[in-house]
Write a structure and sequence with these properties.
Elements lengths: L2 E9 L2 E9 L4 E5 H7 L1 E5 L6 E5 L2 H34 L4 H26 L26 H23 L6 H31 L10 H22 L12 H22 L9 E4 L2
Antiparallel strand pairs: 1-2, 2-3, 3-4, 4-5, 5-6
Helix pairs in contact: 2-3, 2-7, 3-4, 4-5, 5-6, 6-7
Protein name: NADH-ubiquinone oxidoreductase
Keywords: Membrane, Transmembrane, Transmembrane helix
Length: 288
């Protein structure tokens, strides 16, 4: 069905929602997050009070469901391991035991970050019409910085890799204060900054511009909970700086509790993400 008019909503230079006026008087709406997470295009016929969500083809739906399950499971387990590591550091074995737990959690974060990026890389193509989004050829990588979903997930994945440097450094023994801050604390700070940037881009994507509150939107809740976790991780990193004059962190309790709280946020976001998946059916009815 051909289009006769198009309206674009943007977050800075990024398009987050497109609305087409169809030849029969109805509308078709493409939104960035629902398209890449659930393979959806919303269509409303003229005079109808409800919208029909057109789901992508079976190939795309199968891919998105598998990637969503991997990402959700990885962040759920990774966040839980980070929480256990923070608890061990606060109440029991600080040192190598908690460091190895953190390292294991970091591997799950790497997996979740890459699975999230693959969702953006393999998101169904948007179409100027009322047909369902079309499958792309499977890709393990792409370079699309002009898409806000790609940029957000790419920055997130890079953040998980930088955290890996921090976690590897924490396994080393006999580090001086300068080495501790350079190999452990500095990558931790960079990773936290990248997580915050990724979360901000995700908020812009789901809110179509200026960040706001959308309590009826599951995607918004996932992004908001994860962004809270990123803020807590940043507080933890700031408190973990080792002061050269004393050779001790700024505040061990804040560092451990911040990590614990941030980890639980990401674990909760992972659980919520299990429900943000494509449906098995091809059409659904949605109320506006």
């Amino acid at each position: 069905m051909s289009q006769t008019e198009e309206r674009s909503e943007r977050a800075g230079p990024f398009t987050t929602r497109l609305t087409w006026r169809l030849a029969d008087g109805g509308t078709a709406v493409w939104e960035s997050r629902p398209a890449r997470k659930r393979g959806l295009l919303t269509v409303r016929a003229e005079g109808e009070p409800e919208s029909r969500a057109r789901t992508a083809d079976r190939v795309s739906v199968g891919r998105l469901r598998r990637l969503n399950a991997i990402a959700a499971g990885a962040f759920t387990v990774g966040g839980a391991l980070f929480a256990v590591g923070a608890g061990a550091a606060q109440f029991g074995s600080a040192g190598r035991t908690s460091a190895w737990i953190y390292f294991a959690g970091g591997l799950f974060f790497n997996t979740g970050g890459y699975a999230s990026l693959l969702q953006a890389v393999n998101a169904p193509d948007r179409d100027a019409g009322s047909g369902p989004p079309a499958a792309r050829r499977w890709r393990w990588w792409s370079y699309e910085p002009g898409r806000i979903d790609w940029l957000s997930t790419f920055v997130l994945f890079v953040g998980t890799l930088v955290f890996g440097i921090n976690l590897l450094g924490s396994l080393l023994q006999g580090l001086s204060v300068q080495q501790e801050n350079r190999l452990v604390w500095a990558p931790d700070m960079v990773g936290c900054i990248l997580f915050l940037i990724s979360g901000h881009l995700a908020l812009l994507e789901v809110c179509h511009g200026r960040p706001g509150v959308r309590p009826r939107d599951l995607g918004w809740w996932i992004v908001a909970v994860n962004q809270l976790g990123s803020v807590l991780f940043m507080l933890s990193a700031l408190a973990a700086f080792t002061r050269p004059a004393t050779g001790s962190p700024v505040n061990v309790d804040v560092a451990n509790w911040g990590t614990l709280g941030g980890a639980l946020c990401f674990s909760a976001g992972g659980v919520l993400q299990f429900f943000e998946r494509p449906s098995a059916g091809n059409d659904q009815m949605e109320t506006p």
